[in-house]
Amino acid sequence: PFAAVNVYTLDYRAPQVPSKLGERFNRINGMTWLSDSRHAVIANDDLGVMELWRVDTQTGLMERFGGLAGQFPSAARQRDVLVFAHVDRSSGLLRLPLQPGAEAATLLYASNRTESAPAVSADGRQLAFVSDRAGSAQIYLGDAHNVAPRAITALKAGRPFDLSFSSDGRQLAFSVRLPAGIQAALLDLGTRQQRRPDLGVGSAIDLRFGAEADQLLFAAFGSDGAPHIYTQQLGQPASARRLSECV
Fold first, then answer.
1. Which residues have C-beta within 8 Å of that of residue 55, sequence separation ≥ 6?
2. Per-position pLDDT tens, the chain of length 247
3. Distance between CA atoms of 213 and 111, rounded to whole angstroms?
C-alpha cells in the first residue's frame, strides 16, 4: 500500500548510490531533480494533504518545501525555477438520510477550508471530524443540530485521521501522520486530555474502539513482519491477542 523512491547511478562503471529513501511514502504524485543534482522535490501526502517536500537523496532527510500544496513538480536544470500544479480543492461534510424518500443531503458545518475523516458516535448525537479551518489540521466536535463545532485538539504537527468513538461516547481514538511515522492517541472528550495508548504490540498503524467501551482494536506489524489485527482491553497491554492471519 506504500510507494517507494529509489536512486540509481546511470553510469554502470560508477558505484551505486545507496538509497536511504525506500518504501516510506503513502502516495507520490510526481517528482523532479533540483539543479544541484542532489536534492529532489516530491509531491507526497504523508501528512494528509498532497504537498511538496524537498528530499536529500544522499541522506534521506526530508523537509517541507515551503508548505506548498501541489503536485507534478518540474524544476529547471540550470536555474532555481520550479513549476507545479496547485492543489486547491474545496470540500465539506454532507449528511445523507438513508430513509427512502427522505430529503436531499445537507451540508454540515460550512467552511471554506478542508474537512475530512468524519466519525459519528454510536447514539448519533456527536460528530467528530478533521478540519484546517483555523490554519492547522485539528479535530473538531459537533452535534446533530449543526451547532458551530469546536476544536478539541491543539496538535502542533501532522494531520489526524481514522477517528473512532468509544461505544459510550466518552472517548475518541485517532491516528496522526507525522514525518517520523504514524502515532496513535486517545482523547477523553470530557477533560480534553490526550494520551498515548498502552498497547501490547508496538508499531501500531491504526487504532479504533470496539463494541465495548474498554475494547481496543488496532493494526500492527507482528514478529513475522506482516500486518495483523489485534484486540485488547483498555489499559491492559497484557490482554492483547491477534485476531487475523495475514499472508
1. 5, 21, 39, 40, 41, 42, 61, 62
2. 678 888 877 777 777 665 667 677 888 899 999 999 899 999 988 776 788 999 998 888 888 887 777 889 999 888 888 888 876 655 678 777 777 776 777 778 877 777 888 899 988 889 999 998 888 889 999 986 667 889 999 999 888 988 999 999 999 999 988 777 788 899 999 999 999 999 988 778 788 999 888 999 998 887 777 778 999 999 999 999 998 876 5
3. 32
Residues 167, 152 contacting (CB under 8 angstroms): no
E strands within 50-110? Answer: 51-56, 62-64, 70-75, 82-86, 93-95, 106-108
Can you read off the three cell numbers belonging to residue 78? 540550470
Burial grade of 95 (CB within 10 A; 0-12, 13-18, 19 or more): middle
